[in-house]
Amino acid sequence: MSADRPSRPRTAYEVLGVAPNVSEDELRRAHRRAARAAHPDTGGSAAAFAAVAAAWEAVGTPEARARYDRSLGGTGAHAPGAASTRRDPGPTFTPRGARTAATGTDRSSGGPPPRERPVVFVPPLSTSPVPNGVLDAARSARRWHGAPRRRGLLPDDHRQLRQARVLRLLERHLLPGFPAARVLTGLSLGGRFTRSLDVDHAVLCGDRLAVLSSVQVPDGVYTWDGQVLNSGRAVAAPPVLGPAMVTLQRRLPNVTVGGLVLVMTDRDAMHTPVVRRVRGADDPEAQADLLTAPPAAGRDFLRELSLFLGTGHAPETVDRASMGALVELLY
């Protein structure tokens, strides 16, 4: 073991390069510096950017920071010297897709390794030469592709937080059961429509392609009428995915495209907020978009996404031609 290798996982504060007792303003400035340095567009890497996003997710709001500090044990991270005296080193910020290679153990759950079905590549990875338009073998074997797009000179904190949470949800709860699934972050489909066709995330699994986005709302109970989420005191319109879904369906006629929206609050909880459908919300004439299922919180979102991907004709297959077409659309 090298002398400079860390003896324990880095805390969120260490990832962001600050002391645990810095002010909120100092913490925000540190996040912006770290995000710029870690972004692939400025010489960083997807793994480094994911680690920064995960760290900011843990301490980016006063409420989240208080919960994180309590998780550190001892007197809390805000107390001087707490980083060196606590007994628990805190959560590990591992890059997305990080699993123990030798055992396949999902480190985020701590449970036994999932029983994975063999992945079938079409065409096989041994095919040589690689047909035109087919993704090469090395990238076909990767489960994660792309990185969140930088908007302007400074990072969009809220957007990065939402994207990081979606990626962590997929890593922990979806990918262990779908070994052939491939996650693509940051698809740009052009400007044919009046609104942007940028896609935050997409998951390809066999002949199914799920287009994913997210919206953050205040905690509470919401009703979904097919167009907006309404709590009586707050109304939120989910991102419009229909134009992107139509464009991708035309580009990939052999793939069935679906769209789902994750609804989240500032609490990293699987069951909140509560989203209820009003009578008639599922009627086609009531729908404002082409969503496969109503917008939902984490647990229901994962259930609908798993159902959509798992009911395809070949969920154990990686379609390398479709992957090639999608990778070409990455930012």
TrEMBL record:
Residues 11-72 form the J domain. This is J domain-containing protein. It comes from Micrococcus cohnii. Signal peptide: none annotated. It comes from the Bacteria. Residues 20-45, 70-126 are annotated as: Disordered. The lineage of its organism: Bacteria, Bacillati, Actinomycetota, Actinomycetes, Micrococcales. Residues 91-105 have a biased composition (Low complexity).
